Amino acid sequence: MKTETPFELTILGSSSALPTSDRYPTAQVLRVPGRFFLIDCGEGTQIQIRRQKISFSKINHIFISHLHGDHFYGLIGLLSTLNLLGLKKDIHIYSPSELKTLIQPQLDHLKADLQFKVIFHPLNFKKPQKIYSDKKVEVFSFPLKHSSPVCGFLFKEIPKQRNIKKEFIKQYNIPVAEIKNIKTGADFKTTDGKVIPNAELTTLPPRPRSYAFCTDTVFLPEITEIIQNVDLLYHEATFTESMKDWAKKTLHSTAKEAAEIARLAKAGKLIIGHFSARYKTVSEFKKEAKSVFENTETATDGNTYKVEQH
After folding, report:
1. Does the pLDDT value for residue 1 go beyond 70?
2. Is the distance from CB of 232 to CB of 210 less than 8 angstroms?
């Protein structure tokens, strides 16, 4: 039986501006086949990476949504740790362009001993943009709306080719040169002119999985066009509806608004987080969100959320 390749999100931090005794500021690790992506890097991120037994050596792509401290103050400490561990792979940081200016003096301080390059990739705050791709996954940024320029991120598996049924290769004596075409959807014509439909020769691969990260933002329905049918959606929910006016003033979202985004996007599952430290529990957040979008969970530091293959 073929082993399923993992596609899973680990929450490292789910608090908003202030850390609490059981919640760190925003940070997440998304694991897709063979890759680990760090999304935001609040204080305490490297402590949480250790607690969750995530290999530091696996992380060399870091996505910083915006330049509020609770989303990047852990970055320089993490880079220092990666250096002390002797890692040599280049580190790619996708962030507002100003981040380089902010941390370059600290990097210069480490420069004599820095064993890897730090490569900055500036985000586009005007329109969606593909910012990373390889053979297995592609990543898009898209603008959100907050008191500081901010982007969300969409991670999508690259669709796999169709699976050819091995018994037909021998039965129809299919040449190796034709197999590639068949995997991409072509029919096969035998030497006597008979056409074998692709649907008979192959089976569908697993459906590509996806994850969207929507951090600090006002309620912004237009993003649902970008994240439509996403399997797993994280959306900030700093406040409940009882503080909707304050959410609007601070350019944040409520739990109900996050759920409405999930409903409009036809998401598979919603995780809400970035909770204001003024709340002692998050039960009201969950109740409020589930009244709009049933498949909702409240983020918990250390929890991992899997997206299954279908």
Report:
1. no
2. yes
Q: Is 68 annotated as a binding residue?
A: yes
Distance CA(296)–CA(263), nearest Å, equals 11
Question: Considering the chain, what is the average pLDDT of its residues?
Answer: 93
Task: Give the mean model confidence (pLDDT) for residues 206-219.
Answer: 96
Does residue 146 have a known ligand-binding role? yes
In this structure, the number of other CB atoms found within 10 A of the CB of residue 69 comes to: 11
Binding residue per annotation — 40?
Answer: no
H helix intervals, 126-172: 166-171
What pTM, to 2 d.p., does this model score? Answer: 0.90
> How confident is the model at residue 194, as a pLDDT?
84
Q: How far apart are CA 209 and CA 106, in angstroms?
A: 38
Residue 111 pLDDT class (50, 70, 90 cuts): low
By annotation, the residues acting in catalysis are 70
Does the annotation flag 70 for ligand binding? yes
Q: Measure Cα distances from 97 to 129, 190, 286 in Å.
A: 15, 57, 35
Tokens at residue 25, please? 């500021």
Domains of the chain: 8-160+206-306 (3.60.15.10), 163-203 (no CATH)
